[in-house]
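Hey,
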Amino acid sequence: MKSEPETLTLSQVNVMSLAARDGRAHDQNVRKLLTLFCQCVEHGLISARGNQAADCLLEYVREALRAFLNGSRPGDRGKRGLATIQVRSIEAAFGLVHRPGHPEADEDRQIQVAASVWRHRFAGETYEKAVLKAADEFNREESAIRRAWRTHRTLGLARIQQDRDWAPWTDAERDCIRKSLGGGIKSPDITPVTASDT
């Protein structure tokens, strides 16, 4: 629902925004500023001038602010269909608070995570340190990194080989792969070696 933008003078907006920026504003005034921003975007008074990425960002910010101001947003609850999702903080409105459980990650992302662990291992890091560095790199919990490693480590190796135009593994990399896969590799490709092959 598009309501007409509240009428505030430039001076009022300036004073309220400076106070908000300095942490001295009343909550009511901050909410007025956020509401005004949403209304201005809705009425096309703030636009990205045809830049689709900027339009998408403006819409994201507007929707997040509107959800924060309303205390809820329509959302997908999986098998239960659409439902009203409670928004209890500005962090939740912007998607910085994750729902309970494991965050969903697509397969390509998990392959990237596994490849990152391999790269850190090839750089001489222990498995634990490689997991910690990948967790920092992807802003994920260690358990999510370990899960991606368990399920996508072979594909992570393939990604690394592809990224470097299928160059053969170095001896140090072969040793790391052999130790990590519990057998190693037969050739420059990523075919695992079984105990009967050695």
